């Protein structure tokens, strides 16, 4: 028997800003909204974003010291980079290895890294071969 990953949840310090990142900049679709919670999807996986309403959150270790990062495949890498910058999300690295600083004058070539509003690093690519074990159909 093989398990299937179907859901990831994140508590956001600013739900609306987080939705702007995942929905508007990276293109996930809204599946449902209820109260201080929103379910986003790519059609295969559920990504639930909650408004954090507890005590003050501890600081997140972001950037290349990230203890959590998420990979996203987009249909057009340059367009995704443009939208991220348009909505005020700073692209921090070119590629997936974190060794090349991003130059906004040069479009990303293979992938880029960007942080969500709470500092979660997101690897963004348009290629199908970036994550072993994941069949993206070509």
Notes on the protein architecture:
The protein has 138 residues and is an alpha+beta fold. The protein has a single domain (7-53, 61-125), classed as 2,3-Dihydroxybiphenyl 1,2-Dioxygenase, domain 1 (Roll), CATH 3.10.180.10. The protein is built from two helices and nine strands, in the order βαββββαββββ. The strands form two sheets. It has a five-stranded mixed β-sheet, with helices on one face. Strand 8 (111-115) and strand 9 (121-125) form a beta hairpin. The chain starts with 6 loop residues before the first strand and ends in a 13-residue tail after the last strand.
Query: Which spans of ≥5 residues are poorly predicted at pLDDT below 50?
Result: none
Mean pLDDT: 86
Number of strands: 9
Rg on CA atoms, Å? 15 Å
Short synopsis of the structure:
With 138 residues, this protein is α+β, with helices and mostly antiparallel strands. The chain has helices at residues 15-25, 77-86; strands at residues 7-12, 29-34, 37-41, 46-51, 69-73, 91-94, 100-101, 111-115, 121-125.
What is the topology?
Layout: E1 7-12, H1 15-25, E2 29-34, E3 37-41, E4 46-51, E5 69-73, H2 77-86, E6 91-94, E7 100-101, E8 111-115, E9 121-125
Parallel strand pairs: 1-4, 5-9
Antiparallel strand pairs: 2-3, 3-4, 6-7, 6-8, 8-9
């Amino acid at each position: 028997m093989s398990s299937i990953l179907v859901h990831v949840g994140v508590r956001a310090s600013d739900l609306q800003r987080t939705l702007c990142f995942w929905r508007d900049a990276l293109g996930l679709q809204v599946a449902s909204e209820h109260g201080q919670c929103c379910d986003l999807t790519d059609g295969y996986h559920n990504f639930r974003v909650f408004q954090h309403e507890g005590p003050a959150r501890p600081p997140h270790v972001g950037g290349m010291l990230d203890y959590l990062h998420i990979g996203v495949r987009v249909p057009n890498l340059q367009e995704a980079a443009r939208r991220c910058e348009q909505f005020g999300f700073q692209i921090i690295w070119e590629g997936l290895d974190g060794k090349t600083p991003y130059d906004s004058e040069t479009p990303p070539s293979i992938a880029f890294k960007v942080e969500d509003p709470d500092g979660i690093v997101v690897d963004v690519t348009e290629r199908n071969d970036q994550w072993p074990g994941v069949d993206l159909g070509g």
